[in-house]
Design brief:
By secondary structure, the chain is mainly α. About 70% of the residues lie in helices and about 0% in strands. The chain is built from three helices and no strands. It has helices at about 1-65, 70-80, 110. The longest helix has about 60 residues, at about 1-65. The termini are far apart. The model is unreliable at about 110-115 (pLDDT under 50).
């Protein structure tokens, strides 16, 4: 009788223990899968960061090239820009042009651009 009760009690405890072990195993598998997913996401983010830094370096070089004073001077000449006769530096730093007493004479190619002599 006593042995029979002990055997039943053991059988009753075995089911919940097996269920708890299975739940723990599933939890470990889920954590492992999540860890692998996070590592892939991190690798992707690091690659994206590397690409963005490369693009930033390329754009910085391009800005420096476009701001080069010699290039700007050549481009201004090509477009027919002329230097102002006077420049007044105002206290607020806006740098408005001061009107000269006589109008600046444009280069001949600019003056003739409209088809007039």
């Amino acid at each position: 009788d006593f042995a029979e009760r002990a055997q039943r009690r053991g059988a009753l405890l075995r089911g919940p223990l097996i269920a708890a072990a299975a739940a723990a195993a599933l939890l470990l598998v889920a954590l492992r899968v999540d860890g692998v997913r996070m590592r892939y996401a991190l690798a992707h983010a690091l690659e994206q960061e590397r690409q963005l830094e490369l693009t930033q370096r390329e754009l910085t070089v391009e800005v420096q090239r476009l701001r080069d004073p010699m290039r700007l001077s050549r481009e201004a000449d090509r477009l027919g820009f002329v230097r102002p006769e006077a420049l007044v530096d105002l206290p607020d730093g806006t740098g408005f042009l001061e009107r000269p007493s006589a109008p600046a004479r444009p280069p001949s190619r600019v003056a003739n651009a409209g088809g007039r002599p």
